[in-house]
Structures are given as C-alpha cells and as structure tokens.
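#structure-requests
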Amino acid sequence: PTHRLTHTLTTAQPTLTLTTTDTHLPHHTTTLHIDHPTTHHHFNQQPTHNPTNHHRTTPLTPHHPAYLIHTSGSTGHPKGVVMPGSALLNLLNWHHRTVGGEPGTRTAQFTAISFDVSAQEILSALLFGKTLVIPDEDVRRDASRFAEWLEEMEVQELFAPNLVVEALAEAAVEQGRTLPRLRTIAQAGEALTLGRAVRAFHASAPGRKLHNHYGPTETHVVTAHTLADSPEDWNLSAPIGRPIANTRSYVLDGELRLSAPGVVGELYVAGEGLARGYANQPGLTAERFVADPFHPEPGQRMYRTGDLARWNTHGELEYLGRADHQVKIRGFRIEPGEIEKT
C-alpha cells in the first residue's frame, strides 16, 4: 500500500533508490533505474575491480549496517531493523563451518529479498564459491513446478519457510520425485512441522539434511538444530536447538530470572547476532533491546523476542509459541495491531 511504502522510505531515508522504469514510488529520492539504457552504458564504463576505502565516503567497518529490513509493528507502523555487518559475518562464518557445502554447490535463490533469510541464502553461496540458481516468480508460486525445476536445475541447497517445505514435499511425493541432488534444506521463519509428506520426502533420499533455524528479524539466525538422518528418529516437532557461535540464549521469567530446564519462559537472545535497533525509533529500541544482566562485561545487550520457550533434557530450546498475538504467514511476521490501526 502507498501509505506503507511512504512510511518505509521516510524512516529509511535512502541516499539512492535502485528500481526499474515501470515502478512508481510515492516518495522522492535520487533514483537509479537499473533497466534504463543509460544505466547500462554507465555500468560498462566502470572499473571491474572491487571498490576500496578510497572510493567510499568513509572507511567500511563491520559496525556499518549490512541491511535495513522493515517488519510489522504493533503501533500501526513498520519497524526498520538495522543489522550491522558484524552480525551477518558471524552468521555466515558459522553457516560455512556447520552447514558446509563445497565450491560449485548449486543453491536456490528462493526467498524474497525483503525476507532476511535472503541475505544468508545469497551470501552463504557467493562468499564460498557456490552457484546461485534463480527461479522465476511462476515457479516460486507453484509447488509442482518448483519440484520439477529443482530436479532440472540439480539444486543441492534450499532455504525456505516451513509452509514451502511442506508444499514441496507433498508435490515431490505425489510426482514420485526423490530429488536426490537436494542434500540440504534449511527451514526458518516459522515453526517446523514434521508431517507425513515431509517424512516421506526425506526418507526417499538417504543423507539429506534438514536444518531448523530460529531467529527473529532483530537477530537473524541465533539458534539451530539439525534433524536426525532418518525420519523414523524424528519426534512430532523439532526443537530450535542451541545458540550458534558467539550468541547466547536465555529463558527468563517475568522478573528476568533464569528459568529452570523444562520451565516455560520468554526467550531472550544476546551476542554477535543482535541488530543495532530500530531505525529512528530510540524508545522502541530501548524497550526491546535491554541490558544483559548475565554477562560480565558492561554494556552488553539482549533482545526480548516475545517468544515462549524452554530448555529440554538434551540442552536444546523448544519453541512454544508467542507471548502476545503476533502471527507468522509464509515466514513473514505480522502484528494484528498494525492491521487494526490501518
């Protein structure tokens, strides 16, 4: 909607907007149409080597923003989450060490760029010599065609929310496709459900790995769990796992005391994965990003997720829903309060 685009661009205050000639934005910024012939000519005149600090207005550091992504807000307006490069670097290094994938691995570029998983998807491929394979929109929206496309393109890695994983599994089982080249599936953005179709799909290709990743937009991925190789060893639901490298997770009660294993509390996360906060919203930032009382170094923060969780007997986190009325649709976070106020 126009009012949402206007608010998003006003709070983001972009220096430059990259767009296409057939897109009309409601907010005036300096615009570069990437499909215009003049732009193509200009690009062809540029050097092919990487830019250096000499070309930048200031030296680039890990503390600079890697991206700003807006997510639904209970106040009626989207919240712009500013993620620093250091958090993304931490995630990508962890991903390479644990999920892996050799140079030349074919990774589907499936998720929308307005979904933070796309940063992990794209950069985990390009930084480590993999190949991004991009489906068109018609293929993305049709599970049957998507299954056919994955087989035809010999895709080996897929990042997708639970709903897409379920639809793909149902289509593949119905078509009799095992997709043996698809060795890694990373699910994030929704609670992972392990229905009959998902189990049958994984049983059809021994060795395929299913990873359950967790992290709100304000932290990206901060916990992870890899399911057992055999679906026969799966439970009805999958835990969200343990904190990834250089991150911390706390399950706290209403007075910010640590909850015992098995006791439900609100999940707080801390460490390298945290965003700076919300762009131009210091009050909201202070409300959700609070002091970490459990870290010995002063100035450390933790993020209040609003998610309910508990530690299980294996030392992993189990997701148990929301402490408020927030919902997820296809991995995207929606605050009913925003809808009520618009």
